[in-house]
Amino acid sequence: MKTYEHWQLEHWADCHIPWIVFNGIHSFNDMSCSLEEELSERQAMKIVESLKVPGRNGRLHRTFGDYDAFEFPVELQLLKFEQLAEVKKWLRGAGQLVVHTDPDKYREVTIIESSNVRPYVNEMNTYWKFTVTFECAPFKRTLRNQQIILAKDSHTYIDPGDEKAAPFFSINSSGGDIRLVVNNQTFTLKNTKKGMVEVDCEKKLVTQDHSFVKNEGDFPIIQPGENKIQVSGNLEQSIFDPRSVWL
Description:
The chain is mainly beta. The chain is built from 2 helices and 20 strands. It has 2 domains: 4-142, Elongation Factor Tu (Ef-tu), domain 3 (Beta Barrel); 148-246, Jelly Rolls (Sandwich).
């Protein structure tokens, strides 16, 4: 049985011209907007500080391993002249951007305009030309459902991403302490109650019934490639979302 995500990806892929999808709305199928040219691929780079030290030849380079957002301008033509108001409502704010060159992944984006004005050029009262600029988060994420049911014994997960990922765990606890061991690093949930416990490693939060759960250790991190994961304690089931990321 196909999931909604699989149907959605196939539906978008049916369009054989270059396209974008912003917040679930397809540029051509839904808004009659065609791209002026093929989209280029862009990759975020690590932020590296270059330091000149007096008395030393050359430079020192320092990085904390983080990536910056980047701008991604897209030139569009609106083929239905009378549909401008709908397009204006669509292309504003923030959300998820999918592009035809990588249709099963998305980036979190915010629409920005450096001059705070976006010109729409009237071409002979037939169509409109304009450019929309997306400020993109450095990482892409998958649109496909990645939830994995973990057994209580050791589990091997091969992460296909390019960078370290902050996973999400849903653990159906029967009460007491729960231990998560990821790549030999132990993270303990203290004195859980009976019911679902959520571990959000990106937000660094552990919650149960809308209350915080005490924890010990560093929040788990998933590495590109092979990862060893073990969940132990008094629990019925645990579900793991790796939240893989790509550059």
